[in-house]
Batch of 4 targets.
Target 1
Amino acid sequence: MLQEPIIATVILFALIAVGEWISIYTRARVPMLMTAMLGFLILTWIGVFPENILELSTLPALGAILIGPLIVHMGTLMRFKILKKQWRAVVIALSGLAGALTLILSLVTLIFDFPTAASGVGPVSGGVVALLITNERLTELGLTSLIVVPVLVQSFQGVIGMPLAVSFMKKYGRMFMAEGKEAAAHVGFDDGEAVQPPRFSIMKNNTIKLFVIFVLAALGVILGDLTGIHFTLFCLVFGVLALNLNLLPKSALESANSFSFMMVALIFVIIGTMGGISPQDVIDNIPAVLLILALGITGIMGGGLIASKLVGWHPYKGMPVAMTALIGFPGDYLICEEVARSETNNIKDQEKLFQELVTPMLIGGFVTVTMASVFIASFIMSLI
């Protein structure tokens, strides 16, 4: 029965739906993505899910090509006037990485060795690309026994990072909503922003809108291949420009009634990163992995705390931005949605809090996961 793609898809979809229900029931204290990832891992270990369930469901293949369009959509959430004020998010994100690198490279090297420390640095910085760079270098050097370390770090850091970030964001959300319009003015939220119509009337058509989003995503991929710069950066820039030039409306995929399905397809891909990890892998490498995770998370939180105070942001707002290195996309976006939903009781306040949270989180995520992690992994692994 599981050989039917629709059956395998429904089973995986049920895992996501249960995670969403738990998130709503716990008021976002248990993030949906964390539940889905852990549930997938445990159910695979005990034999409830076959190891090839993702292959049986064809939705992950679709999700893999939707990253570009979803990043374009994220760009359509950001007006120039708000982006100008996000330099603080960049400083905080980089400070968090600096703290993590300092602790991991010093203490893990002292307790284990430098290759072990280096193998955990890239994944803690965030991103699948950094993981691939790390694994390729370890294979090239014949250190294949260490490959499971970055894989485990990459797999479990989000499970730890998401509830920590949510805890800080919920506290900040309550403060932000209590302060009301005064706080909104301080951080640059325009409560009375007028809805700008698309520049061309044909862009009101959902099919045409989707086509343009996919075209921009494809251009981002092409430019990424030509320049060596990660394609998601181009997709983000195209989305920002499309919004601010009124080519696309704000929240473009939502206006095209396509966002929820695309996000679910991408979540299938994300939970698949837990595949291939066996209980024995965890047991054999757990000392090094736990130390790297503990030091990495401590360094990120410490760096984020110090930088938040220096740039004038409340730590409850700044520290989750630093922790985007642990979470990445789409986790950073999803927890903003969940926190905004849990800390408000009407649509207007929910949107207000969501906009306050999501822009710095997305900026922080792109700084850490998309940009800095690739540079850090490449440089540190070259030192082995």
Target 2
Amino acid sequence: MAPKAITKLKTRIRIRILSRRTRGHSLAQMIASLKEKLLGWKAYFDEAEVLSPVRDLDKWIRRRMRSCVWKQWGRRSIVS
């Protein structure tokens, strides 16, 4: 896998799927669209058996999903 391909995938995911974190999309909708994109990407790069970039990509996607969930929860006010 070329680093350019991974960067391009991250950009597309960031802009098209995970940037919608403030637009009222549920987590299930984000996961469905993310699944569609990742399955296509996996089918294309299926012959490459490189685990390191895939692990790093998985970590990155999980971190982005957590940030989306935290953003949807909103801020908690501190009551004194």
Target 3
Amino acid sequence: MSALIDRPFLKMNGLGNEILIVDLRGSKARATEEDAQALARAPKTHFDQLMAVHDPRTPGTDGFMRILNADGSEVSACGNGTRCVAWWLMRETGRRELTLETDAGLLICSAGETPDQITVDMGKPRFGWADIPLSEEFADTRAVELQLGPIDAPLIHSPSVANVGNPHAIFWVDDLNVVDLRRSGPMLENHPLFPERANISLAKVTSKEAITLKVWERGAGLTLACGTAACAAAVSAARTRRTGRDVVVSLPGGPLRIVWREGDDHILMTGPATFEHEGRLAAEMFSAAA
């Protein structure tokens, strides 16, 4: 029997990216891979990412988040999920700024100009091949050797790679439908170049201030939005001089504003968090998907 039974949950979304928040504060319970797989399949709790919120580990922070994908795999970052957790805790505490922690570090979150808008300081991106990580050394990760399609006429090739709490590969395209990510995403996610798998994006730069993005998320599949992918695409576009450092990234679920701040190189992500419903986890939510 799951240790999560009778724990409070909130179902939210960030631009359609389905988020399940499970409140584990004051408890020693931990979400397991099997818990995540079951809850992802249950109708009331279906999610792309599960945010398990625990008591703070570091003094001065407001909570520690474990993040699990729908397949049960654990990751260290989820931008849309972080905005949702921040929205919830801000309404609980009445505060407009708080600090959350994951295995990837501290995330400072602040309320935006409208009630549903949240800004998250996602920290510094990492570009070193070993930090992403890649399975082989590349001196320049602005474009690495990887392609899909015929050798002499690849459909997509030479992605930029970055780590924004998790690994990302961004393919620059003129047509977001040049390949079917539902079919090619799993193969690219699990390519031998990515020992920890990777999030795969198709990115079309439409101006110096705008990018359109389609994302296959590691462990979740094709989603309506991915905050860390938007961050990775924005910093990679600026790094390759395709855009400036302040852009709007449009995903199927809607837009995110990404600012790659000069001076400290921190990424600021601003976007909405939308409440759907809440309740308590029941035994049938786990047994129905067993």
Target 4
Amino acid sequence: MLQAMVVVFGFMALGFFAQRREEQNRSLAKLCLYYLIPILIFQSFVHTGVSVQSLGMIVLHFFVTTLLVYVLLIQVVGRLLGWKHEELKWNALAATLANVGYFGLAVIRYAVGEHAVPYAVAVSLAFNLYMAFFGFAQIGGEREWSGKFRRVLQNPYLYAVIAGLLWKGLDLTMPDALDAFLNLAASATLPLTLLLTGAEMRKNRYGKEGLWDAAKVSIVKLVLPVVVAWPLAVWMTDDKVEQSVMILMFGMPTSLNLLLLAKDQERDTTSLAMIILLTTIASPFTLMLVMNHLP
């Protein structure tokens, strides 16, 4: 976990001190969102060792928990905290989307063990499915379901998921040269998204009210998903390893992908960048508390 923290904050620091121009940040966001992350998704499906049955159960568990958390945020928590309209939408996404990739895998290795990594990879795949079908549908300004559906069809995650499932289902063999290229491209995703996060923090200015608003979202993000995921994990499976993975994964900090989506929509990223920073700083402490009480 310490190694993951050093990597995360190290690249954020580099991005913070290297930030110069807004157009460079937007180009970097588009590169990650439309090319590198889809490659990472495709490679994750190609190389996963999780059985279709296990993957299906984990995907179901993930979707049930995530959608329940989202409904609670929209209908209950958001209203109590006074979130409205665009603020409600983006804060709900910030409190739902989690960094289950690099950070999540490091935590699972530390807390549960190497044998739990396949379960964590399956959760990461479920997260990509959620982003492909639900995340992209929420980021635009369309109110009609037809408009949301068109936006889903325009997003690159969906086609990366479909391609990965087809490749896995047909049991095709990846040429070594192509596999090496795709692996290298996928490995560039994390450093570049972290650099962008640091750069976005450099250009933004934070007042006391903005910091407090980001802190409230961060607290909700680190508490509510775990509270919802815990009883569902115990109810949906008797496998202690799977239970532990599902509970811990919902306690991860806010996903960097959300910043890329906001940047692509030319939205102000001030609050989102701070939420990502705060949840990343605080999550080791909340995760340690969860680890001490795992089933």
